[in-house]
Each structure stands twice: as structure tokens, then as C-alpha cells.
Amino acid sequence: MFASSSCALAATRLENLVVKPNPAVSDVEIVVTVDRGQFDKQGCTIIVFTGDESSAPKVIPFGIADERAKTLHHFYPKPGAYTVRATAGSGCTGTRTVSVTIGAAAVEAKASAEKPQQAGCPAGWYLVPESVQAARYSCRPNLPAQALKCEGGTSYFAEGGVIGCR
Question: Same domain, yes or no, for 91 and 133?
Fold first, then answer.
């Protein structure tokens, strides 16, 4: 029984979804990050829905030895507000969504973004959507899209919000 519960905790999960720039003119970079448990040795897929009808959903495969973040680019053919959704496919768990504003609407979004922000996560951190309960919430650090380049026989690690080479 203990072994099966520890395996469930170690499963690959969809950790983060970032769209840059946001607001944007038309072309965006979508960064999808997965988090693997210490003993997780399986590949998985993430399916990204861009929120427009211009293209089919994009499938991002994560192999056993792949980096934890992958990037794709998407061109939005017309201005508007879109919801980008990443959802777990085979071998992963979780769903994340991000709203993105494209084109003419981007000017309005930029103006509203320049207004003082309400309480929330500080720069370099993101709000954990499932943690929000009234005034209570949790923040996690935005880890780099690419693993650090480690030298001298060391290798990259990311554990508990700490990254480095060891």
C-alpha cells in the first residue's frame, strides 16, 4: 500500500503555463513546464489549445530524459482575447490556463495592467490557481524555461523551489 501511494505522489504533473509577451501583437511564445517526482521515470504528453480556431490543438511530448520546460510558438490571425489551455494527456496530470490579449485589444490590456495591482504574487512568482480560496492563496517561483548549463561534472537540479548545479 505504501509503494502505490508514493508512486501517485511522484507522477509527472503539468506545473506551469506561460504566454509571452502578453499582451501581444500577434505572435506569442507558449512555455509549458512539467514537474516530475523524484522517482518518476515515465514520458508524458501535454495538449495545448490556443483558444482560436486557426489551428488544431498542439501535442507536446515529454520524454524520460527531456528538459522540464518546452516552448512552442503560435500566430494569432486576428485581434482578440484568447484563453490558452494546457491539459495533461497520456502519462501526466493537471490543467493550466492563461488569458492572452492579441492586437488592438493589447493596447487596452496594457493600459489596465499599468494600474496598481491588487494583492497577489510578487514579480518572479505565479499564483497557484487551485490554491485560491477567498483571501487565501499560494505562490510558486517561475523557474527558468531551460535548465541551467552545469559545468565541472555537475548536473542541474530543481527541488522544492530551489534550482542549481551539484
Answer: no
